[in-house]
Design a protein that fits this description.
- Keywords: Signal, Sugar transport, Transport.
- InterPro entries: Bact_solute-bd_prot1, SBP.
- It holds the Pfam family SBP_bac_1.
- It comes from Kineosporia succinea.
- 38% of the residues lie in helices and 13% in strands.
- The chain is an alpha/beta fold.
- Strands 1, 2, 3, 6, 9, 10 and 11 form a seven-stranded mixed sheet that branches. The protein has a three-stranded mixed sheet with strand order 7-8-12, covered by helices on one side.
- Strand 4 and strand 5 form a beta hairpin.
- Helix 8 crosses helix 9 and helix 17 runs antiparallel to helix 18.
- The radius of gyration is 22 Å and the shape is globular.
Length: 450
């Protein structure tokens, strides 16, 4: 869906980064005219069938839409697990050189780790340029390496700040536009005897990284054309500033330190334990699915733009988002590319995706449609959140550079955040230690670090 569960971030690193031995995929397995393990019904049995792994909740409907609209190719879909569970199976297939699907759903931040193993196909010669105009510059950058394109974007996570209207009204708080104002409002709320202003758990390293990038950090510089050369900068002032900022709010008791995506955290959101929730465009769907916004807290949520570090130089950042990629093991890459380019790209599937809050669509045909732009979002008590907050944030997003070892990096950042939350380290020290950990790891995997 929009995010993978942080608890799974510590698995499979050595296998994923088989750097010196990175080899190309094979043409074994993959496409077949008569697949035997499809979750869905094949409509046109004579057409080549493309195997797909994906976990979107409305995938059955999306696949049926595609198959009903195509006579030249059919989708044979399987849910191989969400996030890391699927990635582990994919890595096993890469190592075995067989067993991978033709098309696989991958989060954008995970692409590079598979690209470096030659496990994904460059879609540029297979029609990717035909759909490039459907996406923002940032969304396209997230799936590209130079002129190569390794996946097609589907959904994303432009970031914003959700807040409780009832709490803001009671304590006469105006939505902060800067992080300084956020800290001031947090202090005001505490002084008045109110709840925590927000929460920063140790298990949201992707969120923390996005805020570091928003401040001006560039954690990684990497180009797949030079596989074993990487720039790492995690002890810079921007990173230290962000880690120190949250360390200070935690020390003063202005924000909670509960791990997010837990039952206790959700209970706190429902019960008004937190005045804000800094998150992404998929959050309303996630929260609704957890029962937030029903009962006593119905109509109490609103959303505002993400606070800025420098209001005169606003920066839009992203948390989460998924894509469709073609694997190197596909036996019919042209047919697989048709699926990657066309699956979840038709009007019916996109409409179902955003109306059910399954995805925040990145396709400009939706982002520019009157219905989506002017939608009055029920979770936000009828606020036109797409028009006012999320679409501008998505279109302003300029993309990010991910490392080939996102899983390992997130695990180490998560550990450093746990220390910050426990008060056993400072933001400065955490940044210094994190930089050394990631640099040492990269070198141990055969990288030259600059």
């Amino acid at each position: 869906m929009r995010f993978s569960k942080p608890a799974a971030l510590v698995t499979g690193l050595a296998a994923v980064i088989g750097l010196a031995a990175c080899g190309g995929g094979s043409d074994e397995g993959g496409t077949s005219a008569a697949p035997t393990k499809c979750t869905n019904k094949i409509v046109h049995a004579d057409a080549p069938a493309v195997t797909v792994w994906a976990w979107y909740p409305n995938m059955a409907k999306v696949v049926d839409n595609f198959n009903n609209q195509h006579t030249d190719v059919q989708v044979c879909w399987t849910n191989a697990g969400q996030g890391q569970a699927e990635y582990d199976k994919f890595q096993t297939a890469i190592s075995a050189k067989k067993g991978a699907p033709d098309v696989i759903m991958l989060e954008a931040e995970q692409l590079t780790g598979f690209e470096i193993q030659d496990a994904l196909v460059d879609l540029a010669p297979l029609g990717a340029e035909k759909v490039k105009a459907n996406f923002s510059e940032g969304a396209w950058k997230d799936v590209s390496q130079g002129s190569a394109v390794y996946a097609i974007p589907i959904d994303g996570g432009p970031m914003a700040m959700i807040y409780r209207k009832d709490i803001f009204d009671k304590y006469k708080i105006t939505p902060p536009t800067t992080w300084d104002e956020y800290a001031e409002a947090a202090q005001k709320l505490k002084d008045a005897g109110g709840p925590a202003f927000g929460d920063i758990g140790s298990n949201v390293p992707a969120l923390v990284t996005s805020l570091m990038i928003q401040k001006g950090a560039q954690p990684f510089q990497y180009d797949l054309s030079d596989k074993l050369n990487i720039g790492i900068k995690l002890d810079d002032q921007a990173t230290k500033d962000v880690l120190n900022y949250w360390a200070d709010l935690i020390k003063k008791g202005l924000v909670g330190k509960e791990d997010q995506f837990t039952t206790d955290y959700i209970s706190g959101v429902v019960g008004g334990k937190y005045a804000t929730y800094v998150s992404a465009a998929w959050a309303p769907g996630y929260l609704t699915g957890q029962g937030v916004g029903e009962g006593d807290d119905a109509g109490q949520f609103a959303v505002a733009p993400l606070p800025q570090w420098d209001e005169s130089n606003p920066v839009s950042v992203n948390w989460g988002g998924s894509t469709f990629a073609v694997t190197s093991q596909s036996g019919n890459k042209e047919a697989a590319a048709k699926v990657a380019l066309g699956l979840y790209a038709d009007d019916a599937s996109l409409e179902d995706g955003w109306k059910t809050q399954t995805i925040f669509p990145l396709n400009q045909s939706v982002l520019k449609s009157d219905e989506f732009v002017n939608a009055e979002v029920e979770f936000f008590d009828g606020q036109t959140a797409n028009k006012d907050i999320y679409i501008p944030a998505e279109n302003a997003y300029s993309g990010a550079t991910y490392s080939p070892f996102t899983v390992y990096y997130y695990a180490q950042l998560q550990a450093q955040m746990a220390k910050i939350i426990a008060g056993s380290t400072t933001g400065d020290q955490a940044a210094t230690d994190l930089h050394k950990q990631i640099t040492d790891y990269a070198k141990s995997q055969g990288f030259t670090v600059r």
